[in-house]
Structures
1.
Amino acid sequence: MKFVLLPVAALGLIGATLQAAAPAPAEQADKRAYTFFNPTPDKLLRELATDRPDATESPFTVDAGHVQLEMDFGNLTKNRLAGVRTTAGELAPFNLRWGMTQNLELGVFVTPWQRETAKPRIGPSERHNGFGDTTIRGKLNLGGNDGGPFAWGLIADLKLPTATGGFSNGKCEGALTLPVAFELGGGWEGGAMTVAEFRSRGAGGGYRGVWNNTATLGHEIVKDVAGYGEVTSSVGDGAHVATVNFGVTWKLSANTQLDAGVNLGVSRRADDLGVFSGLSRRF
């Protein structure tokens, strides 16, 4: 995994330097006393920050003592590769995020139902339905959680093989992510992440490394409605997978946001098209 260490270290160094150089936000509240069992008062809550709808994870954590639900109402992907047309969809996949301390959160990703249909040029179609794998997450913010022009953090994921219907490889897998967020001026905001993912080699045993990188750029369109554009790239799994993504968010209140988006494959191995809509709600 040496090819991952250089960009991770570089992003970390840049983040630490910018965070140290940035002026502290005026009258920033000291929230270190708040925990999951001693919730942060509503008047001290950060502005709602979500890990969706783009693929780029945010470095911001949920305030201590609060829970945030992020989910797709549904999503659909289509792809054609090697003469096989594949259609896949998920119903209500969600992520629950628990704020544990000022800068630490825990989360769980669950897919209650999914379906995949593969139709070759010749022969019958194959269809699978079932529950998805479950991912456990820990996120630590390393700077900029409560304000400033730059924020960064560290995310650790552990995938558990809970899927049914032939969707799971039966192996635990993991990933380490370094996400960053930054202000660009003129109302523009950006984000990026680099991910070292560890996937099972299957029957051969052991794990192989996959390197994922994303970058996103967003701006408010009208009051409470914003749009974003994003590029993603994944290498190290026998193919290059790249997409260009677009979407919108609509902030209904301080604690509720709707979103929708479309993902377009720009490499042969990427899904040709993905569409989704969803919701984020803080409690």
2.
Amino acid sequence: MRYYRIRDSRGDTHLTAETQPGTLSSLTSLNSDVTDFRELLNVSDISGMSVDNIARNVLSSGDAETFDVAQLTESSRSATGAARIIAPLAPDEIWAGGIGNYAVPDEGVAGMPDITKTAYEADRPPVMYKGTNSRLAGPFDPIGIRGDTAKTVAEGELVLIVYKGKLVAYSTGNEVAGGLMGETLWWMVPSKVFKGCASLGPCIVTPETMPDPTGRDMELTILRDGKKVGSSTNTTTLRRSPAQIVEWTQAHDSPPDLVIIYTGGCVADGPLEAGDVVRISLDGIGSVENTVEVV
């Protein structure tokens, strides 16, 4: 299934599931204890049932309140209307893996500088810390660019949802990358960690619905004053599998329960400016659309 979080006109949060194309059914309207995807993961971990089967059991208990995806998307994009789509979950930590995970052919890797070549040839994938949920933007919230560097770029990526060390679902979003790391590797952390340094959504998709997230079309578009100033397309093809990326984040660490990992993907070359609108679409998951602001 695909799961969305909705905030209604009363300010209440609903966890919803797409039960028919374009129609979201609120699990929260049937069971007030179910307001977040993490709660389904908790029950799944205890019971051994799949997240989707747990959701089906909840939905079978009555007539759920429903929402229309197209209407919600428009009201979220325009910041109008009674209900909005918000970030599909609140992770404990955010991580990013980019260089080294792109699907670069071996002959392309051979010509790279040694420091970059290592990232592609080593068993260990490069995965960098990007902060906590307080830095994460929802699918239609503002994203940030750093005011202390001339170049911050948008990166559309497949996102892995990891719960207690297991890969449990997928999403997409913008892994906003500050330019400080290009000046010196000693500034790697501030280059990656700042308010609005990533966006997520619009939904979460389980492996039952998307058994293989690789090879899917992704598109990134940047609009400035309504005109396209940047774009890029790619597919979610990686040198290392999602399972391998997740395995290495657990190998010598004890991460918190709920972690999301950006895997690398679609990059726009030009620097972002305040007021730009960045739209990232991933086949099978949907789109995020974020306005840029300086932080």
